[in-house]
Amino acid sequence: IMIDLSKEKLELNYPCSWEYKLVVLEHIDIHITVKEVVSSREHKVKESKVSTKGKYKSYTLELLVHNDDDRTEIYKMLGDHSNIKMVL
Questions:
Q1: Which segments of the chain are extended strands (E)?
Q2: 55 backbone φψ class: left, alpha, beta (φ>0; ψ -120 to 50)
Q3: Whole-angstrom distance between the N-terminal and C-terminal Cα of the chain?
Q4: What is the pLDDT of residue 33?
Q5: What angle do CA 42, 44, 48 make, to 5 degrees?
Q6: Is 48 helix (H, G, I), strand (E, B) or coil?
Q7: Helix (H, G, I), strand (E, B), or coil: what is residue 16?
Q8: Which of the residues 5, 46, 47, 80 has the least number of beta carbons within 10 Å of its own beta carbon?
Q9: 16-25/56-65 β-pairing
Q10: How far is residue 48's CA from residue 58's CA, in Å, rounded to a whole number?
Q11: How many CA atoms lie within 13 A of 51 on its CB side?
C-alpha cells in the first residue's frame, strides 16, 4: 500500500523542538542571520557541513516551536532571508 504523504498531516505534539537545516555562503555570520529571524527566542545553531569547494556551509538550527503556524512561519522567514540560500 502506498501512502500519499502530501495528504498526511504531520502529527506533532506542540510545543516541540524542531530542527531546520540552513545552507548559507561560507562568509555569512549564521548567528546574526538567525537572530534576525528568531530574535530573542532561545535557539541552538550547530555547524553541520562545508561544501566540497568550501563556498557553502550548512547549519542545524534547533528551537522550540509552539504550533504548526509557528513552525511554518519560521521556515518561511528563514527562506525569505537574503543570507540563507536554502532551508530544509
A1: 16-25, 43-50, 56-65, 84-87
A2: alpha
A3: 27
A4: 97
A5: 160
A6: strand
A7: strand
A8: 5
A9: antiparallel
A10: 5
A11: 12
Q: Which amino acid is at 16?
A: C
pLDDT tens track, the chain, 88 positions: 666 656 666 678 999 999 999 999 999 999 999 999 999 999 999 999 999 999 999 999 999 999 999 999 999 999 999 999 999 9
Cell numbers for 71: 513552525
Burial class (CB in 10 A: 0-12, 13-18, 19+), 65: buried
Could you count the other beta carbons within 10 Å of the beta carbon of residue 82? 8
User: CB within 8 A of 43, min separation 6: which ones?
Assistant: 34, 61, 62, 63
Return the amino acid letter for 87: V
CA 37, 70, 64: angle at the middle one, nearest 5? 80
CB atoms near residue 34 (< 10 Å): 24
Do the Cβ atoms of 48 and 58 come closer than 8 Å?
yes
